[in-house]
Specification:
Blueprint: H1 5-8, E1 21-27, H2 38-42, H3 48-60, E2 70-73, H4 77-89, E3 96-98, H5 108-116, E4 122-128, H6 132-142, E5 156-163, E6 169-176, H7 178-184
Helix pairs in contact: 3-4, 3-7
């Protein structure tokens, strides 16, 4: 597949021991009981408790050293509401994007192509759904989506992207439960 000129200028290997991209992966907050009907399920918003938990977590992120330049979310309400809470905390509502690749049915290869187009040294938060997020992280850190990771609702992971050629590679730096993040926020 041909690469655009902006992508071809992007460094695709680690320089000076720095990651190309710090990728923060956040699963949406609590959204209540799952529906069998896909349309109804896709429309579920955060619950009151889910919203409260994400607000607490968003407050704890700066204390954990999380810096962000961009927030990208699945367009489903529960993810978008989660992303908006974090983006508001970081004053990045103008840098909040909806990516169809982060829907539960999103294409991983299309998401990886988006990641390649990010500016070197960026700090990106993606907000989405399980099991897709764990699969994405597994593929980045091991080359296989078969890695057994569990990202709890409102859980957060940090993955340092180290290369894009011949395929995306990185290292899992940490994986935090909501409980740990809330403790860090106190």
């Amino acid at each position: 597949m041909p690469r655009s000129s902006s992508v071809s200028k992007l460094s695709t290997t680690v320089e000076d021991g720095k990651s190309l991209l710090e990728l923060f992966v956040l699963r949406h907050g609590e959204a209540g009981v799952k529906f069998d009907d896909p349309e109804k399920d896709d429309a579920r918003p955060l619950t009151r408790d889910g919203r409260s938990e994400i607000e607490q977590i968003a407050s704890s992120l700066p204390r954990l050293g999380v810096e962000l330049n961009l927030v990208a979310s699945s367009p489903l309400p529960r993810s978008l509401q989660t992303a908006e809470i974090v983006a508001r905390r970081y004053k990045l509502l103008n840098k909040l994007e909806q990516w169809d690749e982060l829907k539960p049915s999103g294409e991983t290869d299309a998401l990886f192509r988006r990641l390649v187009r990010q500016k070197n040294g960026s700090n990106l938060l993606i907000v989405g759904h399980e099991p897709q997020l764990s699969g994405i992280m597994g593929e980045i850190i091991s080359g296989s989506s078969g890695v057994n990771l569990v990202l709890k609702k409102s859980g957060l992971a940090k993955v340092e992207i180290l290369g894009f050629k011949p395929k995306i590679t990185g290292e899992l730096r940490w994986l935090l439960t909501p409980r740990l993040m809330k403790k860090a926020g106190k």
